[in-house]
Structure formats: structure tokens, C-alpha cells
Automatic annotation (TrEMBL):
<dbReference type="InterPro" id="IPR025886">
    <property type="entry name" value="PP2-like"/>
</dbReference>
<dbReference type="GO" id="GO:0030246">
    <property type="term" value="F:carbohydrate binding"/>
</dbReference>
<dbReference type="Pfam" id="PF14299">
    <property type="entry name" value="PP2"/>
</dbReference>
<protein>
    <submittedName>
        <fullName>Protein PHLOEM PROTEIN 2-LIKE A1-like</fullName>
    </submittedName>
</protein>
<dbReference type="InterPro" id="IPR052147">
    <property type="entry name" value="PP2-like/Lectin"/>
</dbReference>
Length: 153
């Protein structure tokens, strides 16, 4: 059983991530000296990021799903909350998060933004997740490393 798993940015479904007017792919350094690829939001008013963990092998107990991201110093358009949804077996978590508040004192630093939690049992099934905001202000400056599922600490 794995303690945690991650879907990196390339493995996510990011609306318009293939259009360089809206997103760009950047190399970011790891602590090990290696690099990983992250998706940097340049400018959108329609934000939609989704993905899933297919039949993850998780230890029993409470797990959380987190967006691993950072907000650039010059980010804008995040004063309104964005929506999230997480489904797993019979569980659905949904709500809103204010990313501007989450990164208020930590611009340009990677953070884990909790999208929800669930109780893992032996019959687990897929975990699906969405982060979205349709319409409203244009947004820029979010950098996404990926989405992780891990035991709740």
C-alpha cells in the first residue's frame, strides 16, 4: 500500500493548457536538484482543473487530497473564491476556497491546499477532483505542481 500518490500537472486536465496565451509549462527545481514541470496560469477567466486517481492502493484510514501550488507575487484576479469538488466511493466533498487568502503571506512558495478528505477502506475505487471558476475576473499567477492524496496527519 502506498502512503501517498501524486498526479503531476501534465497528468491533470487543465482547460486551455495547450494554448500559450493562457498557460505555459515551466521547469521548477526539486530539493534533490532535479526539475519537474509545472503549469503556470498566464491569463484566464474560465478556470477548470480536474483529474483522478484510478483505484489507488491506500492504507486504511483518513486521507486528504491536496492541490500542490504556489501563487506568483504579481498574481491577480483571486479575490473571489474558486470551487472544488472531490468524489470517492460514496463520499462527495465540495465547497469553495479563497486562494488569495491561502497565499496571503506566502507568495512564490509551494503550499498544499486541501480539497477534501475521505476514509479509505479495502474497496476504494477512483478518486476524482475538480477545481473550477467559470466567468468573473481574469486570473493570473497560479502555478500548479499537481494534486496529491495522502494519509491525513
Amino acid at each position: 500500500m502506498a502512503d501517498s500518490q501524486m498526479v503531476n500537472a501534465r497528468g491533470l486536465n487543465i482547460t486551455r493548457s495547450d494554448d500559450r496565451r493562457y498557460w505555459r509549462w515551466v521547469k521548477e527545481p526539486e530539493n534533490s536538484g532535479d526539475y519537474f514541470e509545472a503549469a503556470e496560469l498566464l491569463n484566464v477567466c474560465w478556470l477548470q482543473v480536474s483529474g483522478k486517481f484510478e483505484n489507488p492502493k491506500l492504507s486504511q484510514g483518513t486521507h486528504e487530497v491536496v492541490l500542490v501550488a504556489k501563487m506568483k507575487t504579481r498574481a491577480y484576479g483571486w479575490d473571489a473564491p474558486v470551487n472544488f469538488k472531490l468524489t470517492h466511493a460514496d463520499t462527495t466533498n465540495h465547497g469553495t476556497i479563497n486562494l488569495e487568502d491561502m497565499f496571503k503571506d506566502s507568495k512564490d512558495q509551494w503550499k498544499d491546499i486541501k480539497l477534501g478528505e475521505f476514509n479509505a477502506s479495502t474497496n476504494q475505487g477512483n478518486i476524482e477532483f475538480w477545481l473550477y471558476k467559470f466567468g468573473g475576473k481574469w486570473k493570473s499567477g497560479l502555478v500548479i505542481k499537481g494534486v496529491a492524496v495522502r494519509p491525513k496527519s
